[in-house]
UniProtKB/TrEMBL annotation:
Enzyme Commission code(s) on record: 1.8.4.12
MsrB domain residues: 15-139
Source lineage: Bacteria, Bacillati, Actinomycetota, Actinomycetes, Pseudonocardiales
An example Gene Ontology CC term for this record: cytoplasm
Protein name: peptide-methionine (R)-S-oxide reductase
Keywords per UniProt: Metal-binding, Oxidoreductase, Zinc
Amino acid sequence: MKPVVGAAPKVVKSDQEWRQQLTPDEYRVLRQAGTERAFTGEYTDTSTVGVYACRACGAELFRSSTKFESHCGWPSFFSPLAGDAVILRDDSTMGMARTEVLCATCHSHLGHVFEGEGYDTPTDQRYCINSISLTLSPDDQA
């Protein structure tokens, strides 16, 4: 998995506009690359069928069909939606080499992706995403 930084964000707002739109906790995670506490997010254990979108801009990011139980404390997905829904960036903060996951539309921080952990998923990847970075739209047919 090679990190790729995409083009400029399609949704651009000033810092003040983001602060007005987002709660302080949402702003800390989405715009300042924070992390919510493990096992506290609203989507950690949900099994609702639907689409997960970026809480900041509404871009569709993940389907519930790619969500799996990783028991890590955050919602985990084995793949984002097809296309360029997310972009990846090297992250060496916290004294670790990780790969950050960003919304391709607004460049908000979503979480990190890890691979080679041995999960029984089609990609052997774990997109570890903060619940506070997402909104879930349930499928009507569910």
